Every structure is written in structure tokens, then in C-alpha cells.
Amino acid sequence: MNIVDNFDLFIFDLDDTIVETDQYHYASWLHTFKKFINDDFYIDYNFFCKKFHSLIENNIKIYLEEELKLKNYEEIINYKNKHYISLIKNNKIKLIEGFDKLINKIINEKKIFVIVTNSPKEQLEVFLNMFPILQKSSKNYYRELLEKKKPNPECYIKVVNDFPYKKMVGFEDSLTGIHSISQVPEILTYFINNSNYLHYDYINKNYKIKHINNYLELN
To answer: Which long-range contacts (CB under 8 A, 24 or more apart) does 95-98 make?
Structure first.
């Protein structure tokens, strides 16, 4: 399947869609909870996906304040984000399998791509510096530019408005992202993840998407 010939604009989420990072988000949250709750606090990865990959807007804030009874939300978020960036900078981060081949093909064939993420600009810029090819993105959409985060579709509506008349395809790895992009019918959606993902069956059953395990399946 030569997907590059069939579309003008390629839209990529960031975490676990371009870079393998969700494990570091999980580790950072676990570290943060141990600091702000106690050293014995633990949630496994599937529980993390249940709470953090959610269809509920402001799901993280709700989980922290209503279930964990933590009221210092901004302090906690800032601490977690700093720890996450430290982990990213001190570990060898990998691109999702096949992404480098796909993105080079998009660039060589003079197609365009954008990055759409819930992450703040500071985190995105770490990856732009780590993988310079990402700097060829035509536009980046990050948290500070958005009034509402995914699963709200605002970010993808902005893409459609910014790039009218383009034939678009988008890639997302999580329930939150799939719900967001699926509300924008102008974008053909690929779900990129494997069957071990907690929400795998739910996504394939409830959303009109195409599925791949990695980008090599497109080439």
C-alpha cells in the first residue's frame, strides 16, 4: 500500500505515534504519585491507561482531585512534566517502527505533515531537537495553542481549517486521540497500536478506523 501517493497531508499524534514514550509518561506519573501520596503507592500500566487514556475531558484533573484527593493540581503537573523531560533526555528514545521511512517518503515526494499533541510546547521541542527531521513539519499543534485538549476534536478541526482542500490521513495510538480525530470526518484515521493495548478491542469495535501495528505495514 503506497499511502503517500494517496494523500496530501499526513497528521501525526506525538506520543507512541511518532516516538515510543508512553512508558516514560507512566513512569513519571508513578514517580510523582509516590512523592505526593506515599512511597507505597502503585498503579499498573493497564490501570494507568484506563484513567489517563480516557474519553472524559479533564480526566487527569478529575482523577487527581476526586479520586486521589490531591488538590494541588498545577504543582503536581509541573513536577511530573519536569521529571518526564528528565527521563526523556536521559534515555535512548526510539521512533515508532517504520516512521523514519514513512516520513522521509512524505518529504521526498513533497507532501506535507503536521504534529498534533496534547503535550506542552516544551516537551514537543525536546523531540524536535532530538529528531531534526520532525522540524520539517508544516505546523505543530500543542497544548498552549488549544482551549480544549483531546478527546475534544478542537485540534483536528484547526488542522482542517488551516489546510483546506487537502486529502488528509491521521495517525493516533490511544483511545483519547482516536475519539478526538474520529469526530472530524475529513480525516481518514489509522489506529496504530497492538492487541496488548487496554482499549484495543473497544477502539476497533466502536470507531470507523483502519488499523496497523506499525508504519512498515504501509510500505
So the answer is: 95/18, 95/19, 95/20, 95/131, 96/16, 96/17, 96/18, 96/19, 96/20, 96/192, 96/214, 96/215, 97/214, 97/215, 97/216, 98/214, 98/215, 98/216, 98/217, 98/218, 98/219
Q: Which carries the bigger pLDDT value, residue 1 or residue 203?
A: 203
pLDDT (average), residues 199-217: 97
CATH number of the domain bearing residue 153? 3.40.50.1000
pTM higher than 0.85: yes
Q: Is the same domain home to 84 and 105?
A: no
pLDDT at position 43: 97
Q: Note whether 114 and 194 are same-domain residues.
A: yes
75 is in which domain, residue-wise?
A: 22-89
Query: What is the rounded (10 degree) CA torsion for 114, 151, 148, 113?
Result: 0
Out of 38, 69, 89, a domain closes at 89
Closest among 45, 7, 73 to 174, alpha carbons compared: 45
Q: Verify that 149 and 70 share a domain, yes or no.
A: no
Average pLDDT value for residue range 89-109: 97
